[in-house]
Amino acid sequence: MARLNSYHLPHHLWPGQEELAHLQGQEARHLLGVLRARVGETVRLFDGLGRHGLFEIVEAAGKSLARLRRLSETIEPAPSRGVTLALGWNKAARRDWLLEKGVELGAHGILFWQAARSQGDMPHEPKDSWLDKCVQAAKQCQSAWLPRLEVSHGGVEGLLRIAAEYDGCYVLYEGAPIEALLDPRRLAMGRSLVVLGPEGGLEEREAARLAEAGFVWASLGPRPLRWETAALSCLALAHHAQLID
């Protein structure tokens, strides 16, 4: 059976037990206008919080609204482990690409923070375009979960305020001993926060403050890695460790 097209229906719009689903906006326009789906066809809906199901189109109102009847539904439990990347804010052309790959590799969260060497000012809240990019990636890889998108202001101190939410906190720092390689087995245990600086790296005082607060310095090897390469290396290590655990 061919893979069904997936559409994002936010959690607050998910239908009750006997209700029809109402797909609107950009998702409906793609379904009805671009793909020209018709009444009777089946699609997959997901809310990004573990709930997904098969739905049959029962009514189409132009190209802006589709009403769908639930055929089946699955609820995947919230992951008990996973990696949240805390990425120093960058004017990186690869940010969208990183969000996409983060979804594919099962990132639990992606958080941007204002580091001393960050380029430009970070927005006060996550942008809608970031969520859109994650949704598109989740459709492609059939993930039922979207990463939690956050921004953290206040520099290193902002990171320390959220550290208690995690079982393990790590900071990738070029001053870490080469032998202090990031251990994928630890990333597969509980929820981990991995801090990366922006292009140009962390300042020494930032790395020292994190270590003072209990963050473990870690390395990805002797070669300097680009921002997005280091981020994806962390996720790939965790993804592989979870698969073989």
Model description:
This protein is an alpha/beta fold. The chain folds into two domains: 70 residues, Hypothetical PUA domain-like, domain 1 (Ribosomal Protein L25, Chain P, Beta Barrel), CATH 2.40.240; 163 residues, 3-Layer(aba) Sandwich (Alpha/beta knot). It starts with 5 loop residues before the first strand and ends with a helix. Strand 9, helix 5 and strand 10 form a beta-alpha-beta unit. It is elongated and about 60 Å long. It has seven helices and eleven strands. Helices cover 30% and strands 27% of the residues.
Overall SS class:
alpha/beta
**Sheet with most strands:** 6 strands, parallel
Assign the CATH class of the largest domain. Alpha Beta
CATH architecture of the largest domain: 3-Layer(aba) Sandwich
- Per the principal axes of the C-alpha atoms, what is the gross shape? elongated
CA radius of gyration: 20 Å
The unreliable regions are none
Sequence of secondary-structure elements: EEHEEEEHEHEHEHEHEH
